[in-house]
Design a protein that fits this description.
The protein has 316 residues and is an alpha+beta fold. The chain is 65% helix and 9% strand.
């Protein structure tokens, strides 16, 4: 009985033929992402902007548009309404309302309850949380520090595990992947909260794992095939690890895809980000991380061989 293979054995795809197109396209998309980050910018939730988070329970299912219109009359900033009908501890009578204006929890509770009594009799406030400017500022700072710390830690580990050339290639690729993910959020105006930041860090970890496998095989083949040109070594290494790369990415993708389709609220946005990041990270391992090593050149990746050692290696 033969096992099903996602990638045929002994593939000989010349990936490095598309190195310039891959790097240029990635750079253009990352530059566009930076522009989108500046304008229109990310759709920050109250985690980063500060505001009020109100969880409500109604006596019957309520229309989200009607609820949003009612809360807009309070003039408490932008209003976002999220149904909690698919949550394990909620019903289709529950809703989550996010207000971007800053307010005191005690003073804002009364006008919200009066609004509910007038427009939605029987509705009650299950919880009301206020995120102040200081808290949101701390979250922003902590998020930036966490991302920067992750990248520096990865650079240090790769430098220790391989050589500095591999570390530069990996961190440069991760920065391109991260900027494209940020641009994805900005382009679609998906809510950006602490869950989004967690998804970004998870994607960085996933991308590192895949790239380390490819880099490790490249380093092994550089030692094994001492007279083979670097471009051929990289193509050979990618083909040898292609089956593992596709299988890993597809497994993670199939496990997260149902949440991206059937999920709701922040869970769905988290899953959508993961799907996008898996796609980008897998392609960047082949068309970005590997070409960077090729651009660095053979002399920086393996020792210059003497004629005698080259002849001996060729004879083997």
């Amino acid at each position: 009985m033969r096992l099903l293979r996602l990638v045929p054995e002994n593939t000989k795809i010349q990936f490095m033929r598309g190195r310039f197109a891959g790097v240029i396209l990635s750079a253009v998309l990352s530059l566009a992402s930076v522009v989108l980050f500046i304008y229109p910018g990310l759709n920050y939730t109250i985690d980063f902007r500060g505001g009020v988070l109100v969880e409500l329970r109604f006596t019957e299912p309520v229309d989200a548009a009607k609820l949003r219109s009612a809360f807009e009359t309070l003039h408490l900033g932008d209003v976002s309404v999220q149904s909690l009908g698919l949550a394990a501890t909620s019903s289709d009578h529950d809703a989550l309302v996010k207000l971007t204006a800053e307010a005191d929890s005690e003073t804002i509770r009364k006008p919200i309850q009066a609004l509910l009594d007038q427009n939605f009799p029987g509705a009650v406030i299950r919880s009301l949380d206020v995120v102040g400017a200081k808290v949101s500022g701390d979250l922003t700072r902590d998020g930036i520090e966490a991302t920067a710390g992750a990248l520096l830690g990865i650079l240090a580990w790769i430098w220790f595990r391989f050589d500095w050339q591999y570390g530069i290639g990996l961190v440069a690729t991760l920065l391109l992947d991260a900027t494209k993910t940020i641009g994805f959020y900005a382009a679609l105006q998906l809510p950006f909260d602490t869950d989004s930041l967690a998804a970004l860090l998870i994607l960085i970890g996933f991308s590192v794992t895949d790239k380390v496998v490819v880099y490790d095989r490249i380093r092994e083949n550089l030692r094994k095939f001492k007279v083979m040109p670097l471009r051929q070594v990289i193509d050979l290494s990618i083909n040898q690890t292609l089956s593992r790369t596709v299988a890993t990415s597809l497994t993670v993708l199939l496990s997260i895809l149902p949440l991206a389709i059937l999920g709701i609220g922040s869970v769905q946005f988290f899953a959508i980000t993961m799907v996008f990041g898996i796609f980008v990270g897998t392609l960047s391992s082949i068309f970005i991380a590997s070409p960077i090593l090729l651009f660095l050149g053979e002399k920086r990746l393996r020792r210059v061989e003497t004629p005698s050692s080259m002849s001996a290696a060729a004879a083997e």
